[in-house]
């Protein structure tokens, strides 16, 4: 059996429907960059706050541990990775997204977009 190495997209599997069932959620261990609109949908930034300074928002979210960085040039926020790996919103036990209905655009589009479009680091849960 071939082993999937998340850091080597050449080992990934071609994505097919149903592949997410029982998967360990490797895609949710990769760095996730989100926009302000994603943070509003997630409910961690209010519409009112979004009208103010984006740098101030970034500072607050970093203080609260929700994002780890913010890039002014692209206006992208990096979600914090728990244990240096899991997405801030991933349930480490069930390996399911805790905000699935409100998840960021980039998560909705994966694996159509990503390091190897159309392929994913699918691995069964142990
Ligand atoms: S927001 Fe949800 S779907 Fe997106 S990476 Fe985090 S846990 Fe996964």
Query: Biggest sheet: strands, sense, closure?
Result: 3 strands, antiparallel
According to DSSP, the number of beta strands is 7
The residue fraction in helices comes out at 10-25%
Bound molecules: iron/sulfur cluster
Kindly report how far apart the N and C termini lie: 15 Å
Structural class: alpha+beta
Radius of gyration, whole Å:
15 Å
Total domains = 1
Number of discrete helical segments? 4
Percentage beta strand: 15-25%
Low-confidence stretches: none
Chain-averaged pLDDT: 95
Q: Kindly report the spatial arrangement of strands forming the biggest sheet.
A: 2-4-3
Task: Describe the protein in words.
- Strand 3 (67-71) and strand 4 (76-79) form a beta hairpin.
- The chain contains 4 helices and 7 strands.
- It has one domain.
- It has helices spanning 36-41, 47-50, 54-63, 105-109; strands at residues 13-14, 33-34, 67-71, 76-79, 81-82, 86-87, 119-120.
- By secondary structure, it is α+β, with helices and mostly antiparallel strands.
- Helix content is 20%, strand content 15%.
- The strands form 3 sheets. It has a 3-stranded antiparallel beta sheet with strand order 2-4-3. A two-stranded antiparallel ribbon has the order 1-7. It has a two-stranded antiparallel ribbon with strand order 5-6.
- It is elongated and about 50 Å long.
- The two termini are 15 Å apart.
Element layout with pairings:
Elements: E1 13-14, E2 33-34, H1 36-41, H2 47-50, H3 54-63, E3 67-71, E4 76-79, E5 81-82, E6 86-87, H4 105-109, E7 119-120
Antiparallel strand pairs: 1-7, 2-4, 3-4, 5-6
The site of iron/sulfur cluster has 10 residues, from loops.
